[in-house]
Design brief:
Jelly Rolls; globular; 10 helices; Arc Repressor Mutant, subunit A; DNA-binding; homodimer
DNA sequence: CGGGTCTTTGATTAGGTTCAATAAGAGTGG
DNA sequence: CCACTCTTATTGAACCTAATCAAAGACCCG
């Protein structure tokens, strides 16, 4: 079971990294051009109801190839996208043309939401692999909330979810060390792969070190070094794009070295302000390992 | 005119920083307990239409005093809040009890949105000054979208705006230097004060250095030092909580010293990858000034 | 006036960036 | 199929920004 999933994942993964596999045979449901409402709800992890059985309401799919741009900054907004399969990145581009990665949408993720406000996309979306996306015209999106009242809440909910995600990114960038960021990134990826039915223990990165670094507010060198360090410690295995998770819990609880920017006093009543960074390894574990772990 | 605004701002500001002024006489429209839909739209900067004239639809206000908590993390969500007057902060609290400031809501801002997804607030909101908030029960919020179709888009738009704001925060935290973050923070505050009809040139900070630092992913010392540096250079004047903006453009274009995490190659064609940080002052300006400005 | 909070400033350290050089793949074309 | 090239990844060394530690001053409040 687990092995099968790994296999599945890896084969698709290597196809991805090959950029357009020579044979596309069997690659996703290539011919799938439309989804009905029920399928859409399942994709978005929204509870579906019996009233959604009308199969007249269909949603078109579109395919993008690795490297293709789905939308660019400033382009008039009119449709949202839901990832049916494949991997993407969304980026902001600053005045010097430098990219800042905002997210890595994958199966079940919604993107394009940032275009609603100004009626123009605020970010750019690029396919990191061949992708199959469900088009969700914004008009259709809002109409959905009206015709299916049970869905109205879901619409808002999905947007709220995005907001919470961004918040946790802000919190991560503001308070965590490089090691902790990379560790959480790996855990997060692992969990998303698990959600998608792939292996959470072994997967291929779809993005470059540079893109990871941009996403995490680090340089590609730091990302590379950190991965190597985790590898040496035995938390993960690394070989280029292929990552094996050895100790998910360790990664999850990895400590942010800098107690950093957060408040000391208010919570000083509790035993927070945890272990001073200076505590020496007292156990049997290798020094580096101990240092990396949360108190 | 400008002077009046400044005066207005400052007097209220000093009241704020005093934490509960001895006399509350004349403080805001203290007695205001309800708003109608038109007023709400104005507050949220949403275009209002003639169909919104029914004055049966009223929205209750609530007052909070400095330091009071509006909602906490995990508390069951059922209402959104719109700031009618006053200043707040929203924070995330990590496993050690440390705060991470996410935003500083002020007049016209909506918060509580992060509670929609899980039906529980994902963040905590605290009043930094006496506040007058409009309660917007989520049920009423969604109903509004149904009864006033013109508003439906606005509902989504407001949420989208929040998302874009978070995105720009992520981008800032991921790519800008300490100086640049503080500079942009000041500019942003300045503009928001201008929107609210106050002076954009002279205002009082409602938050501590520590809170600013948390918001910007810096320590309070760095914030303090940076403000002092800006002061010496003549970009601003600082005296405790009181800030005077002297050169808004300079602040706006302030360069991030580390070209940092962004991509070098893609934009390498242009003359970006700007001046190496090591270049010596060659002009007439003081060294520090030159170093701080964008190429 | 004394206690508490917030701010400023200095000295020192360290985490992460920058610069640089090498290696490993992947895609192209002869 | 292999040489050539371009992109991506790894690793080292030096430097620098911002964090940490520390202490003193400013402001507010009872």
């Amino acid at each position: 079971m687990g092995a099968t999933q790994v296999q599945e994942n890896r084969s698709e993964a290597s196809a991805m990294s090959m950029r357009l596999p020579p044979m596309e045979a069997g690659w996703q449901r290539q011919g799938k051009l439309w989804s009905n409402l029920k399928e859409l709800c399942a994709l978005l992890r929204i509870p579906a109801t019996s009233t959604m059985n009308d199969d007249d309401l269909l949603f078109q799919h579109v395919q993008f190839k690795t490297g293709q741009r789905i939308h660019t900054i400033g382009q008039p907004f009119d449709t949202l996208y839901i990832v049916h399969s494949g991997f993407l990145k969304t980026v902001l581009i600053d005045e010097y043309g430098n990219e800042q990665v905002l997210s890595f949408p994958m199966k079940g993720d919604l993107f394009g939401v940032d275009g609603i406000h100004t009626r123009r996309y605020a970010s750019e979306a690029v396919a990191l692999s061949n992708c199959d996306l469900v088009l969700l015209p914004f008009k259709k999106f809002t109409a959905l909330g009206r015709t299916h009242i049970e869905l109205e809440h879901a619409m808002y909910s999905v947007m709220s979810r995005e907001l919470v995600r961004e918040q946790s990114m802000v919190s991560m960038l503001g308070a965590l060390s490089a090691e902790a960021r990379v560790a959480r990134f790996l855990v997060s990826l692992s969990e998303r792969f698990a959600d998608m039915g792939y292996s959470s223990k072994l997967f291929n990165l779809r993005m470059t070190r540079h893109e990871i670094g941009s996403y995490l507010g680090l340089t590609l060198e730091t990302v590379s070094r950190t991965l190597s360090a985790f590898n040496e410690i035995g938390l993960i295995t690394v070989d280029q794009r292929s990552i094996g998770i050895c100790d998910a819990d360790a990664l999850r609880t990895l400590r942010r070295l800098p107690p950093s920017t957060t408040r000391n006093r208010q919570a000083a009543g509790r035993k927070n302000r945890a272990a001073p960074v200076t505590d020496e390894p007292s156990g049997a574990e290798p020094a580096t390992w101990d240092q990396l772990m949360s108190a």
